[in-house]
Amino acid sequence: MTKYVLVSDLRRCVGCQTCTAACKHANGTPPDVQWRKVLDIEVGEFPDVSRVFVPVGCMHCDEPPCQEVCPTTATFKRADGIVDIDYDKCIGCAYCVMACPYQARYKVDGPSWAYGEQTALEKQRPYDKRIGVAQKCTFCVDRIDEGVANGLTPGVDPAATPACVNSCPSAGLIFGDLDNPDSNVSKLLRENETFRMHEELGTGPNIYYLWERRS
Amino acid sequence: MSGAGPAEVRKVPTYCYQCVAGPDLLTVRVEDGVPTEVEPNFGAEDIHPAHGRVCVKAFGLIHKTHNPNRVVTPMKRTNPKKGRHEDPGFVPISWDEALDMIGGKIKAAMDKGLVDESGFARIAASFGGGGTPTYYLGTFPAFLAALRHIDFSFGSGQGVKCYHSEHLYGEFWHRAFTVAADTPNCNYVVSFGSNVEASAGTCGVWRHADARERGIKRVQVEPHLSVTGAASGEWVAIKPKTDPAFMFAMLHVLVCEHPVEHLDVPFLKHRTAAPYLIGPNGFYLRHADSRKPLMWDAKANAPVTHDAADVDPALLGSFEVANCVEVGPDEQVWTHDRVVGETAHAKLVAHMRPHSPEWASAICDVPASTIRRVANEFLDHAQVGATVEIDGRTLPYRPVAVTLGKTVTNGWGGYECCWSRTLLATLVGGLEVPGGTLGTTVRLNRPATSRQLSAVPGPDGFMNYPMNPTDKDNWHRQPKSRSGYSTLVPLVANSAWSQALGPTHLAWMFQKEPPQGWPKPTYPDVWFMYRTNPAISFWDTPRLTETMADFPFLVSFAYTHDESNHMADVLLPDATDLESLQLIRIGGTKFIEQFWDHQGFALRQPVAAPPGECKDFTWIATQLAKRVGLLEAYNKAINRGAAGVELSVGNKNFALEPEKEHSVETIWDAVCRAASAEISGGEDSEGLDWYKEKGFRVTPMSRLDWYLYPTLADQGLRFEMPYQERLYRIGLELANRMHENDMHWWDTQLDEYQPFPVYHDVPGVWSKVLVKVGKDPKDYPFWLLTARSMQYAWGGNVGVQMIREVAMNVAGHNGVILNPRTAEALGIEEGDVIEVASHLRSVKGQAVLRQGIRPDTLLMIGQFGHWKTPLAKDFDTPSMNSLTPMELDLTDSTGSGADLVRVSVRKVKGGAQ
Amino acid sequence: MSSVTQFRGVNPWRQTYWDGRAVGNFVGGGTGTGFLAIAAAAALAGAPARFLALVGLVFVGVGLTCVWLEIGRPWRALNVFLNPRTSWMSREALLAPVVFGLGGLAVLFDSTAALVAAAVVGLAFLYCQARILQAAKGIPAWRQKEIVPLVITSGLSEGFGIFLVAAPLLVESMPLWPSVLMLVVLGARFVALRAYVARIAGGAVPKASAKALLQVAPAVIYGGHLAPAVLLILGAALDQWAIAALAGLLAAFAGWWFKFAIIVKAAYTQGYAIQHTPARTPGYAGAGGHPGW
Ligand SMILES: Nc1nc2c(c(=O)[nH]1)N[C@H]1C(S)=C(S)[C@@H](COP(=O)(O)OP(=O)(O)OC[C@H]3O[C@@H](n4cnc5c(=O)[nH]c(N)nc54)[C@H](O)[C@@H]3O)O[C@H]1N2
Ligand SMILES: Nc1nc2c(c(=O)[nH]1)N[C@H]1C(S)=C(S)[C@@H](COP(=O)(O)OP(=O)(O)OC[C@H]3O[C@@H](n4cnc5c(=O)[nH]c(N)nc54)[C@H](O)[C@@H]3O)O[C@H]1N2
Ligand code: SF4
Ligand code: SF4
Ligand code: SF4
Ligand code: SF4
Ligand code: SF4
Ligand SMILES: [Mo]
């Protein structure tokens, strides 16, 4: 079996938003739709403050509330763990948006252009299928499927790896197969301390936040 | 995504050099001729310090290219009146008309003689941010070279606002135009406002992330918790501009609280001037005949010259020396037949004694225990005595460093801080050795391509330094440029870069009020401007904008309309980053964290056709050269290497026929071939096509080239630390020159030339300025600071929508950062509109409440406040630049100033929340 | 006008996808099904089924129209039936036609039996509505289990309330039992509301969300329960239908208002949380945080 997960090494992340931009490029998302983004969180009070950069997006949950509530089955979970959306089935009720505790989902009602008028780039990357429906991080499912079909290993071979992961200048995002004990991510989780966000809600999120080496 | 997939997909390699932390390598995905995606260059995974990654700004290039707000035809101004509130009435014109117009002006200037009645060049050019425009200028430098006399001294903020003092002192002490920790090997860094996680590019980000995982401890000392403070082990919230006190206290702990044995004694004895004997007049005691500085040899118990073989120079103590001399300014000589000299190190110990952590604590608002702990951790981590082998050579290993940010190195306090930083490294033997404090590039010394080759023997056992003359016969009484860089600042030297690194704000200030003894100000007949926006970036921007409006003829290369080219007479649309051709040197050791294990060349090539009439810079340069009849001189300049590579390499000659006009591709093909030959030792000669396909070519380079220590050791040279006899003498000479000419307005700056920096109330300087202009410092109780944004390259990409979009995820991009405690006291809530005022004027912005800032400090990220640049003018993000004064009193002796100002704050109205 | 991104930050924000139209569904559906319930009772007691069924269906219908107007791809609306296995929205959608079918028969044939059947299915429909909110894990103010009894009792109260307004138009002498039933469901909603508010005040939702709810809660509790209760008793004592009608209106309005508060005003997202701050130097990790909570 395969289970794709993302590890975000919070020690390495500097909030540069390169991953945010890379996702926008790879997936041609419209202005202000960010399937990946990185938060700038402060904890504590002056002068004992900690500032943390936290990459977020779809957690490709084990028990996705978005899928449970979806009345159309447009939202579905694949055998490899990826939670995806069938844009042709989706009616845009936004119920999944309400069900997602990670603010990972978006819905845009019409086209909007970065500079007011449609540019050659936006013509080249139409997203009309995604108008009026739910959208979110797909774990770059197309790259993964194509990569795997060509015998590549997601998380290892760039062509089969999510764009945001490829782009990270701190190598702070690591993608891989958790069911494979020898994979990069399995190794990282063995050797380091991690947590997952809002685990108490029973969603079984699949972004692991690495915060310290295991002593 | 809907619609059939793209018919044709290409991936084109190129480079990004939007910020000084580059260059970095990327590939651009092009679908059906449309650039759609930026990706890392995975082909560079093994040779690039950041493994072929680029940052978010490089991703912005796609959106930069597609920006419909671009200027896409040459334009001329139809409204002769210039000013912020005048509509320039730009109308499109043909390239022919534009080039004829400019060519005509230049010819006229040439006919009058390129230097005007005041001795200033009639043609000026200003380029922006940290010299990066060079990597986009194509062969334009060859055109400028052909013109010969150019005034580069109208600053854009780069230089005087950059790591300016560091540039000058750094090059002086260890060929360090920019200074970095040896991050890949360092274990402990004290960073005074060096915001590397935002400012050191992808190489910085990657390396520091590795270092953190490895276990480095970085202590970030700064008033606001920057991105770098965030990613550090510890944040120390120091009071603005009190860093000299903190660093003096660290020095105190090292030299006054530890026995000298804890320091790197051999290093101090043989690689520094610590054992040099200082005479009663404050100059080295010198051998009467050879005039070589003297040390005291503990072995022979006798004075010896600095270069004497197998001696044991005393580090501490005073020694009586017979017939010797001291040499002061202007060849003034004191002859001593018997005199007591004290070692420089002993003098240092005495100088530092008053500056205990307890003393500093009150000034910096940092507990003495913290300062002492940091100093001791620094010493402990230094592993004095440890060695490491690099490429077969055993070198000292000192994995500790102190790094400084631009607001620390700049303006008053810069001398103290740069000196202290260099000295802290020196004391533990950590200067220019593995793990320690490194210079990463040279600009003021020649050759600019190699720090090692630039380190040649000079006086007194130190490296040579190309100071501008201060002696009676050679001092530049007549300024060589409108900033008077070579007249006022000996340290800025006289290289191709020196003008731009002079006190460039003086060029602006003196335009209106020239000081006593200065030539009559004159405007340049023609002023070129590219990739800079002084009207936004500099100090006192509204005033500066008015000055710009008086310039008779401004030619601006224009990406979009902006606040500076609003004053232009002609706009020339250049093909931008992804649309034009250029080969540059990569690797080696460059700015900030750009020191590689390889060096070579990378190509920037068109991935898409430029829109409208936008033209490649090389084409523009060639056409201008032709118009003004300098084609031959221009081609010859290219042959000499003005395009980055000399075109005849060994027996191979790729030189261009001087008389002919050559196409852009022909020129760069020649450059590519010469580059291939150079890098292969004359073997290969692959041309443009090869680079277009491969993108870059490198060869391995020894890590020994990261360190200057071996070069000095081999030549038996010493680092000019701790005592600054040379600077002291030069300062006195410069004072003589200026006073002889009845110039007294530079006296405060001249006082800074001290053998040891003398602590003075640096923050107090700002209060004094307020008092001077008749204000009460109490009315301006806050410090306003600035900080880099990783998403922005200065104001260079503010017009790019995607950049604004993603930058908004990072706190502060929407307003003014202040501490909630301060806000509460002033009745301010998150999102309220507040007014921030300096004695000059005020700006408005949203309150952004963050715990990560001192209650007495405010922060405005980056440089915004645009009123013309499309998109950016709709931001609500304020800038400090209209609030910060341009003042002689705020200018240090290197001619730099700092980006901070005293302000008041009040609530204007409730905000969105 | 090019798009100039505004600041969002890391605190929970108010969801904007479900607006007044969504409220319309919960108001219409709740009121309609509640009305059908008491209408069925009335019909059994002899009131004319046709008119009562019609009123109930209109409410439910208006509610469903609101949803239809809200969804992004209305012409695919039929896909809504595809996931009864897990989605309460599919289930609600599947029940709607049944309610209309039965209700329609009641209207056509003025059939009390059909009306009773419609009312029963209507109650199931109402239950689905309650579970729809509870299943929305992303909105803390909705996912509380206390929301279920609240939505059900509120739907009943709203429907009964409207019945008190509408009934006088049918029968010339109004019996006492509707007021009594009204009192009972009001009491039930009072208890459910108190439980829900206690949960909210207990820190189960982001600060901003609690603020929004606790602002309106007192007015709803008193104006929407105690006041109508008093009026009902008064109305009964003075045998004044108008007063009972006013009470009904108050009870219904309070329910609508509080639904609007829950679905729009207090619908803050979960926000983000970290359990630890990372160790930027080994050994320097710290405690985490949950901004906005
Ligand atoms: N992404 C990006 N990178 C860049 C650039 C860019 O525009 N964008 N520009 C490049 C250029 S030209 C330059 S000059 C460098 C500048 O690189 P840095 O020197 O790193 O510049 P800043 O981030 O402006 O430094 C400001 C920091 O200094 C701190 N600070 C301010 N005042 C004081 C003080 O009095 N004491 C102390 N200890 N700290 C203080 C602030 O808190 C802030 O964190 O960045 C280069 N790199
Ligand atoms: N508040 C504040 N001000 C600062 C600083 C700070 O930290 N805070 N830092 C200071 C420092 S250290 C520096 S080095 C300076 C740098 O400041 P500048 O030297 O002024 O550099 P930029 O702001 O990048 O100028 C960019 C200009 O070039 C134009 N441009 C961008 N791309 C292209 C192109 O492809 N073609 C053409 N023709 N034009 C282009 C943009 O439209 C913009 O007008 O800023 C200084 N000013
Ligand atoms: S690219 Fe990497 S470092 Fe930058 S924000 Fe994303 S995860 Fe963090
Ligand atoms: S993160 Fe949200 S969208 Fe993604 S699977 Fe989990 S619930 Fe669904
Ligand atoms: S919006 Fe689409 S994906 Fe989301 S719940 Fe509705 S139908 Fe399913
Ligand atoms: S995995 Fe792909 S889709 Fe998801 S955030 Fe990263 S780039 Fe975007
Ligand atoms: S760090 Fe500077 S040079 Fe490197 S990719 Fe980013 S913007 Fe370009
Ligand atoms: Mo700079």
Folded structure, characterized:
The complex is a heterotrimer of chains A (215), B (913) and C (293). With 215 residues, chain A is an alpha+beta fold. Chain A is built from seven helices and ten strands. In chain A, the strands form four sheets. In chain A, strands 8-1-10-9 form a four-stranded mixed beta sheet. Chain A has a two-stranded antiparallel sheet with strand order 2-3. Chain A has a two-stranded antiparallel sheet with strand order 4-5. Helices cover 29% and strands 19% of the residues of chain B. Chain B has 29 helices and 34 strands. Chain B has a six-stranded mixed beta sheet, with helices on one face. Chain B has a six-stranded mixed beta sheet with strand order 30-32-31-34-29-33. Chain B has a four-stranded parallel beta sheet with strand order 10-9-8-19. Chain B is globular. Chain B starts with 8 loop residues before the first strand and ends with a strand. Chain C is mainly alpha-helical. In chain C, strands 1-2 form a two-stranded antiparallel ribbon.
N-to-C terminal Cα separation of chain B, in Å? 37 Å
Evaluate the radius of gyration of chain A.
17 Å
Determine the mean pLDDT of chain B: 96
Beta-strand segment tally of chain B: 34
Please render the helix and strand layout as text.
The complex is a heterotrimer of chains A (215), B (913) and C (293).
Chain A: E1 4-9, H1 18-27, E2 36-45, E3 48-57, H2 65-69, E4 75-77, E5 83-85, H3 95-99, E6 106-107, H4 120-124, E7 134-135, H5 141-149, H6 163-167, E8 173-177, H7 184-191, E9 192-195, E10 207-213
Parallel strand pairs in A: 1-10
Antiparallel strand pairs in A: 1-8, 2-3, 4-5, 6-7, 9-10
Chain B: E1 9-16, E2 24-31, E3 34-40, H1 56-65, E4 75-76, E5 91-92, H2 95-112, E6 123-127, H3 140-147, H4 164-174, E7 178-181, E8 188-192, H5 196-199, H6 201-214, E9 217-221, H7 227-230, E10 234-236, H8 243-256, H9 265-271, E11 277-278, E12 286-287, E13 294-297, E14 302-305, E15 318-327, E16 333-343, H10 344-352, H11 357-364, H12 368-381, E17 387-390, E18 393-396, E19 400-404, H13 406-409, H14 414-427, E20 437-441, H15 451-454, H16 485-488, H17 504-512, E21 526-530, H18 534-537, H19 541-549, E22 554-557, E23 570-572, E24 582-589, E25 595-604, H20 617-627, H21 631-642, E26 648-649, E27 652-653, H22 664-679, H23 688-694, E28 696-700, H24 709-715, H25 725-740, H26 747-750, H27 762-772, E29 782-787, H28 801-807, E30 815-818, H29 820-825, E31 833-837, E32 842-849, E33 857-861, E34 901-909
Parallel strand pairs in B: 6-21, 8-9, 8-19, 9-10, 21-22, 22-23, 29-33, 30-32
Antiparallel strand pairs in B: 1-2, 2-3, 4-5, 4-23, 7-20, 11-16, 12-15, 13-14, 15-16, 17-18, 24-25, 25-28, 26-27, 29-34, 31-32, 31-34
Helix pairs in contact in B: 2-20, 3-20, 3-21, 4-14, 8-10, 8-11, 8-12, 8-14, 11-12, 20-21
Chain C: H1 20-44, H2 49-70, H3 88-109, H4 112-135, H5 140-143, H6 147-166, H7 177-204, H8 207-238, H9 241-265, E1 274-277, E2 286-289
Antiparallel strand pairs in C: 1-2
One ligand MGD is lined by residues 19-21, 129-130, 158, 162-163, 192-195, 198-199, 221-224, 226, 238, 240-241, 243, 405-408, 785-788, 790, 792-794, 900 of chain B.
